[in-house]
Amino acid sequence: MKTYDVETEWSAADLALLEDLKRAEALLPEDAPRALLSIRLSVLTDDTTSPVRQELDLRLLAGEKGYRVVGVASDLNVSATKVPPWKRKALGEWLNNRAPEFDALLFWKLDRFIRRMTDLSTMIEWCERYGKNLVSKNDAIDLSTTVGRIMVTLIGGIAEIEAANTSTRVTSLWDYTRTQDAWLVGKPAYGYVTTRINGKPALAIAPDPHKALHWARRMALRGVSARRMVLCIVRSGLMSAGLTPSTLLRRLRNPALMGYRVEENKQGGKRRSRLVLGNDGKPIRVAPPIFTEEEFETLQAALDRRSKNQPARQAGGATQFLGVLICVDCSTNMTVQKTSHKGRDYAYLRCGECKSGGLGAPNPQGVYDVLVSDVLRVLGDFPVQVREYARGAEARAEVKRLEEAIAYYMTELEPGGRYTKTRFTREQAEKTLDKLTDELSAIDPETTQDRWTLVHNGKTFRQTWEAGGMEAMAEDLRRVGVTCEVTRTKIKGVRAPSVHLRLKIPRDVRQRLVIKSDDFAAKL
């Protein structure tokens, strides 16, 4: 296995062939079908076909079929089993946003493109909807023929069986290793690193994480909040700057810190780990403990006590415009933090990086109301436009019919033509020719191309947001990149700060507000 370097893998001979193919491509007629090349590779080994070879082979195939190559979607280190075509970085951009720019999608082999029958079915449906073709270099696949459609289904089934066999082997390996007291494969829990003891793989305690975890435990026993723990540990350099309270708590609650084997607990909607029990019903020890069982239990009790003192979370999330409201001083998200005092709950808008969260704004709803009013004033009257795909095949066929008819009448109106024998036939033919010419001139050349069109759905964003509430507005604002800077200013003699909001709206906000339907939204 090795890393693939796009810049260095091309040899002089490869580059020379590439230039030859491009020169031949330049000789194709202007209306030649357009091809997009899809190149994918999960791991480069001696047994796989390099991306360079794939591209050159596909360019040769395009030349044979008379296609003009308009783009190369190269997705390296991507698994076809785990990532469907529409979610890959390069190919996904073409499928979701650049569909009008190509007519056929070429790939080297079906298993280079897809390995799941459901994904294949989705791609066939997409091709039919948008009038695209799928063509394989090494499989008899061509959606324009009945045989090609049958072949693509059969080969896709074989690819899925191969992928399932691989998955079965991997699952079997994990089922075996999880019952062993030796560390064979996998990523160790935080606090441990892999090593070798007597030539066999094993786990060892990492010094810095060990120190950080014990430091966090001592703070937890004193009732220190997870947020405060994060600040102290990050400043010490024992954990990375990207540490969050939720990540730290997840690490502190992992039973693997006692040296036991664990597995992910997928129930309850939280990322937690649970002990794996051996055949004797006891936990399987795979490493030296970072915490003794007593230390781990007292730590969990301290964390539980701290969590019970926190106000219950709001069902829909405490912060209504998360990701939109931004602190002007530290550029982090404003979030609602709740506290309880003498039986009363209080809510404040605070930020992430300012000292103690900055000056707390005690009326989040009031801030929301001002933001909603500002957004409606600036963007509310914009029409809601939906992007739809328009195919130019019908207009192209009409243009071709008119051009052929015009050429026919022009030929027959020349001396000796069938319409020159009498004045009446000449006049009628000239009238028909004028009519055909007018019809051809009336066709907008843009309509002959596959393209995206914007269709007004009859509503304004004010109407849409009034119906959907603040949640709908917040989702649209995040989608188009609209943010609101929050400035908090201390007022002498007043506990609550003065709050000022400033909307930051991208210049191309009208284009960003266009609603683009996701053809793959319901697909896994």
Automatic annotation (TrEMBL):
This is Recombinase family protein. The keyword Signal does not apply. Keywords: DNA recombination, DNA-binding. Signal peptide: none annotated. Residues 189-309 form the Recombinase domain. CDD domains: Ser_Recombinase. SMART domains: Resolvase (SM00857). PANTHER family: DNA-INVERTASE FROM LAMBDOID PROPHAGE (PTHR30461), SERINE RECOMBINASE PINE-RELATED (PTHR30461:SF2). It comes from the Bacteria.
